[in-house]
Amino acid sequence: MTQFPLTPEKFQDQLITWQQTHGRHDLPWQENPTPYRVLVSEVMLQQTQVTTVIPYFERWMVSFPTIEVLAAATEDEVMNHWQGLGYYSRARNLRKAAQYIVDECNGLFPDHVETLLKIPGVGRYTAGAIASFAYNTYGPIVDGNVKRLFCRFFGVDGVPGTSKVDKQLWGLAETFTPTRNNRSFAQGLLDMGATVCKPRSPNCLECDFQEYCLAFKSDRVDELPTPKPKKNVPTRAGQFLWIESKGKILLEKRANDGIWGALWCLPQIHIEPEHLGEHVHLKGSFKHTFTHYKLEAKVWSIERMSGLNQEQAWVLPTELQDLGLPTPIKKFILKNIN
Asked: Which residues are known to be catalytic?
């Protein structure tokens, strides 16, 4: 039988007590935590810091206050509200989730992890978060904060994100998550990981679990979680077109898949600019870092382009605010438009 530093019941009681006294209670999605508000906040919080998400969440709820309003929104409206947050597939998945709930569930959210997982774009963590925060029921959660907390507390070796380690961490979450009144417990896991058991300079001396933490007791806090091997981030070149006419700029809506999917962008070319003919000159350049590579982009100005396809449009600078554009593209346009 597996020996734990303390029993699940004691872990639950101690964490809930800590969260009620020291945890976060003023986040906007904690007020009236409906399934829809929880879904939106959790999707936004993937790969994004809390302080960045708060204003986006508040604006989103003004424009899309209900699941029905979001389901009826156009893709451009949704992407416009998401620009600047990155990882744009999250926005498309939110809209698909809303349409599924309206069309397939009569606008009613499922209330169990198993049925929540049927919603497009909802994975194991998000389903657990909705069950925990919206319904206050059993819903194990494992995100980056929880992985770090569990790796240290339980002394888990190996790189989080690998199947073996993640299986172990989810097993711990399933064992230690209470079967009811789970909202404070789940929030406690996130708060403890975000404010005490931090990636760097954790506040071990202020931690209520210090005496049970296997990493602290073995002086391995700085070693756990096991870091991923560092990879060199490659640099890729990108070529874009600047075509301006009568104060308007030509934009092209990108395909749904790939980088900047479904966003409006300067047309991208995959040939050398000298093959575009005469009257081509360099308009400017910009750099942008993605998760897996760095983009070094050059923007080439040409006088005209024959024929528009259905994914292209002439846009006034004042109309940019109504479209979803990648942040570096929008900045470049506003800086260079005449």
From this structure: 42
